[in-house]
Amino acid sequence: MRFFLPGQTEMCLAFVTLIGGAAVIHRVLCHVRTLPDVPFYLIWGIVLGPVLGFIRVPFDSSFTVNMLPVAAGVILFAGGAHLPLDGLRRMRMSITLLATLGVLMASIVVALFIHGIWNLSWAFAWMCAIAIANTDPASVIPILSQLSVPGPIRITMEAESAFNDTMSAVMTSILMAALVSHGSFAMVFEQSARQILLGLMVGLAMGYAAGAISPRSRMLSTALVMTTAIIPYLLALYIGSNGYVASFTAGLSWQFRQHSPSNVGISHLSTVARIAIFSWLGLIMPIRIFRTYWPLAVGTSLVLMFAARPLTVLGSLGWIRGWSIQEKLFMMWIRETGAISAVLAIQVGTHFPAWKPSILAIVFSSIFFTVGIQAPSTGIVLRVLGLVSSQKEKIPESGKQSTRT
Prior knowledge:
There is one protein chain. The protein is mainly α and 405 residues long. The protein contains 17 helices and no strands. The protein has one domain: Na+/H+ antiporter like fold (Up-down Bundle), CATH 1.20.1530. The longest helix is centred in the middle third of the chain and has 31 residues, at 151-181. 75% of the residues lie in helices and 0% in strands.
C-alpha cells in the first residue's frame, strides 16, 4: 500500500501513520536514555518515504509549508519557556556573542565557500549560509538533557540554539525582502525592524497574559499551553509581523507565571513537535536532488561542521576568560541543523524557484550530516574530553555568579 498524497485526506492519513510509528520509537528510546531520539525520527521518515516509497510527499506541498513553520514556532516557544532567566543573565555575554556574531561568522565562512569554490552568486551564497548558520533547539535541548553536561555549557548551548534560530530567520527575511522588493536597504531594514518590534509585543503580551492564568485541571493547563505556543505565531503572521520572534518571546514571558504544572505540558508539546518535524523532514528528504548536487551539498555540510562552527566558537568565546579548551572543543561539536533551516529553505525555494534544487540539497544535507553524525556522537565527545559531570546537573535557577559571562 502506497500513498502518493494528492489530497488532504491522504495527507492526513500519511501524517498519522508517520507520527504513530515515530511515537513508538519514542517510547522505546525512553528506556535507552543514552541514545538521542532525533536521528531515529529522521531515519524513520527516510525509510518510510525515499527508501521504501510507502509515502511520497512533495517537499513543497501545502501541508509541509504550513505544518513545519507552526511546529518550529512551537519549538521556539518551548525553548524560550525552558531557559532559566537567571541562567541567561549569568551567561549573557557568551550567549549574545554566539547568537549574533556567531551566526554572522558562520554565514561568512559558508558564503565564501559557496561563492569562492563553486562560483555561485553572492545572493545565493548568503541565502544558503544564513539558512544553515543556526543551531536547532529541537535537537540540541533533548540531547543535552539526556547527558551529564556541566550547567554553564548546557545553559549556553540551549540558549544559543533558541536565540540564533530567531536571528537566522530574521536575517533570511531581511535578505528575501531586499531581493524581492528591490528596495533600498534602509527601507527593508526599517520594515524588518517594525516586524520584529511587533513580534516582540505580540509575544510579550500573549505569553505574560497566558502565564498569569492558573488552570486547576491538568486538561485545561495542557490546552492553555497549546494555545499559547501556537497563537502568537499565527497572530504575528496575520498582522504582518515575525512569527518566530513572537513565539520565542512568548516562551520567555511565559516564565513570569506563578504556576508550574504546565511545565509538563510544554515538555510534551515540544516532544510532539520534535517528532513531527524530524519524521516529516526524513519523509521529504530530496534524495533525487542529492544525486545531482551532492558535491556542493556534502562540501558545504563539511565546511559548516569542521570550519565554520570551530571558527564561530573561537571568534565568539576565544577571548572570554573561564572557558577551558575542552569546553570550547565540545561546543564546537554541538551544532545540529534542523527545523528552522528546512522551513527557511522551503520559503526561499518558493520565492526563488531557480535556487530551489541547490538550496534544498545544501540544507537537507546539513540536516542529515549534523543530526546523523554529530547528535549520536555527542555523548562520546563529552566523555573523551572529560566533561562528564559526577551527576546529571539541572539548569540552575539561581546561584552564585559565573565568571563565564
